[in-house]
Amino acid sequence: MAFLTVQVNDVEHHLDLDTRTSLLDLLRERLRLTGSKKGCDHGQCGSCTVLVDGRRVNSCLLLAVACDGSQVTTVEGLAGGDGLHPVQEAFIEQDAFQCGYCTPGQLCSVVGMLDEGGPSAITEDLSTEPVLDAAEIRERMSGNLCRCGAYVNIVAAIEQAAGVAAPVAQAEAVR
Amino acid sequence: MNRVEGRDKVTGQATYAYEYDVEGVAYAFVVQSAIAKGRIRSLDASAALTTPGVLTVLSSADRPELGDTDDPELAVFQGPEIAYHGQAVAVVVAETLEVAREAARTGVRVEYDEEPHDVRLRPDHPGLYRPKVVNPGFPSRTEKGDVEAGLADAVVTVDEVYTTPALHNNAMEPHATIAVWGPDGDLTLYDSTQGPTGHRDITARVLGLPPERVRVVSRHVGGGFGSKGTPRPQAVIAALAARAAGRPVKLTLTRHQMYDMTGYRTPTIQRVRLGADAQGRLTALDHDVAEQSSTLKEFAEQTTVVSRVMYATPALRTDHHLARLDVPTPSWMRAPGETPGMFALESAMDELAIAAGMDPIELRITNEPDAEPGSGRPYSSRNLVACLREGAHRFGWARRDPEPGIRLEGRWLVGTGVASSTYPAYRRPTSASVSVLNGDFIVRVAAVDIGTGARTALTRIAADALGASPEQVRVEIGDSDLPKATLAGGSMGTASWGTAVVRACEALLKNGGKEATADTTDEVGEAADFARHAFGAQFAEVRVHADTGEVRVSRLLGVFAAGRIIAPKLARSQFIGGMTMGLGMALMEQTITDPDFGDFLTDDLAQYHLPACADVPAIEVAWIDEEDPYLNPMGSKGIGEIGIVGTAAAIANAVHHATGHRIRHLPITPDKLLI
């Protein structure tokens, strides 16, 4: 057992904890913040993505004791109040989810990603700040899997939230 | 109309099976077999049982009592026999997840008498036999006309073998259950299921309980794609563990365990023989498949049934053969049958078009049937041709040069391909109720929303039937205590549930009272005899790297004819989602079986590659505004599965157009193009 202090969504918690506990299991099983999801427990799907001190991390790969003194933001705390974060609003408007299980991780990943800047693996010109176009968004969001296949709408939602473009896509009937 | 539960899902307030706050809950973790065939010689859980925090261990060493044990996948811990690698052999229950996991991994010592296993499907497997029926009840073999004569008379023929690998559903939410026994012996299961009513009935039978003593709650389900269509072993194990521990128990399978215990799509080896005359009219179609099931249960995917639906031919033979191997039991995965079957048929049609020197769209239109070829029944509606024509227009097909392997942009070879889609429009009996509360309407039906948008579609349907606004309608689903309903599967949820909701709403308007109910058993049973199918056309543009063989899909278009579309925004998402899964099937997904150890090798998301955001281009979807009076009161056909059907063939056909290489064995990985 170990003692730690961690701030989650602006609430401070003092905990005695089994040192084997991941940050994800701390959130879900001890703090009852079940918004963060367990999809693989191996850092392969991104469903558990939260922000630790502003950076997006796979919370299933992080031992909770390594977060002593950290500030953690989960999907429950993204909006910082009763309203919705612009990214959450854009996800609803663009229908950027179906089953919703990967969604909290996608949302935290987007919020973290929009703050990151810098080049990605596909950025051609490393001397200037890259433009956040659809290709850059897809590259930067590829750590968050969605089996329902909502990527097309996720990219549109991010473009909307980031103010890049994207009216709501419509599929129309013909005839 | 946006998804009605959207706000819950983006704020983390939507509660999935493992997330209910149950007082005094204990944690369970499954121990799996380390061999593929044989018997447990000894099982020693003493180390686990002496671990602080461990409450109990269940295994066949102390056989738990069950009711009906006819389903060997659900009759857990009943004996020492091992039928496949990864079969559940024990479960550890402990105060915390950490303790349960540790004790399961290190505290249960299992020794086996191992026997040689047979896990490799092959076309000459000596055990291949013809099952009596294939899923969900089709005849295994059909034949009309003289196939051999038709092939002999043909001007052009195709005779090729196509294979698809084992595929895993991989819903993002792992299969999970919380089991709570009440003081009076009633059981509540919070479970990730596609069908609360069916789950309750089956699980009650396995546990030896009357169904009214069991309640299954599944308000939100994180995807299923067929794998949650029936109860999985973890539900029974959780119930047994909770009974033994005298406490509520929660149990989730790990991603790794899901590969063994929650079903998968069988690998298929398909031979397709086509013959056509000089005008491209089919003279014969012969479609045969070899596939696998476990030694425990017969599950026969209906792979060649699509050939009974698609094209006019005077001679048609379809057949299925099954080998029973020492593998987990395969099961439903999005459009079972249609998905692998249409990869083979639509690849073969592309090959026939090339052999006949015809445009692949014109070849399909040439073979448009007047009635369903396999049955002779009239179609309730069929608009494949309209989908092909509309898609060709949108995709710019008229500009296409059919010559393969000639378009090089930088180091990328570019090509385009087309394939048809199809999926049956089923409906099953369902009950629903609607009541009036303070001017609003409460609709109740034991439907479930696995991501399809069921809540939203049923809200729309009820509002239309009542002449009310959607804001006045509240739909309650995801609970077996609600009026009984069929499952979210077979693309029949909305049609089945919607019919019951409409009838209940009509009854309410008629009786003018506070509540009305409906049961559609008679209506569904009396439906006229039509061939009811949705159709579609898919178009793909791919870029294949000339040096590395990497394939990138740069455009995808799907045009569908699926009756009336009820919730357009969500329907578009469903089609796109299916096509995205089809892209994965085409290029990356495969479950590899290890012949030496008999287990699945690619059993996590680092090795089994799902499409990621960077793999998926902008996908365009459109639909034909189809009127069909022979379906249901909404005039709708299912849309959950047709999106995946045909995508892989469209991409494979585009790869051929780009490179000149015909890839008949999925997935289309670079190694297959660098030969």
UniProtKB/TrEMBL annotation, chain A:
Where does this protein act, in terms of pathway?
A: Alkaloid degradation; nicotine degradation
Entries under Pfam families matching the protein: Fer2, Fer2_2
Q: Does the keyword DNA-binding apply?
A: no
- Using the record's annotation, list all stretches that form the 2Fe-2S ferredoxin-type domain: 2-78
Q: Which GO terms describe its molecular function?
A: 2 iron, 2 sulfur cluster binding; metal ion binding; oxidoreductase activity, acting on the aldehyde or oxo group of donors
Record's InterPro entries? 2Fe-2S-bd, 2Fe-2S-bd_dom_sf, 2Fe-2S_ferredoxin-like_sf, 2Fe-2S_ferredoxin-type, 2Fe2S_fd_BS, Aldehyde_Oxdr_Iron-Sulfur, Beta-grasp_dom_sf
PROSITE patterns in alphabetical order: 2FE2S_FER_1, 2FE2S_FER_2
Q: Which UniProt keywords apply?
A: 2Fe-2S, Iron, Iron-sulfur, Metal-binding, Oxidoreductase
Task: Name the chain's protein.
Answer: (2Fe-2S)-binding protein
Which organism's genome codes for this protein? Spongiactinospora gelatinilytica
TrEMBL record, chain B:
Concerning InterPro entries, the annotation shows: Ald_Oxase/Xan_DH_a/b, Ald_Oxase/Xan_DH_a/b_sf, Ald_Oxase/xanthine_DH-like, AldOxase/xan_DH_MoCoBD1, AldOxase/xan_DH_MoCoBD2, AldOxase/xan_DH_Mopterin-bd_sf
Domain Aldehyde oxidase/xanthine dehydrogenase a/b hammerhead: start-end pairs = 11-116
The lineage's top-level taxon is: Bacteria
Q: Which UniProt keywords apply?
A: Molybdenum, Oxidoreductase
Single annotated GO MF: iron ion binding
Region of interest (Disordered), residue spans: 122-145
UniProt keyword annotation of Oxidoreductase present: yes
Q: Please name the PANTHER family in this protein's record.
A: ALDEHYDE OXIDASE 1-RELATED, XANTHINE DEHYDROGENASE
Q: What is the name attached to this protein's record?
A: Xanthine dehydrogenase
Annotated source species: Spongiactinospora gelatinilytica
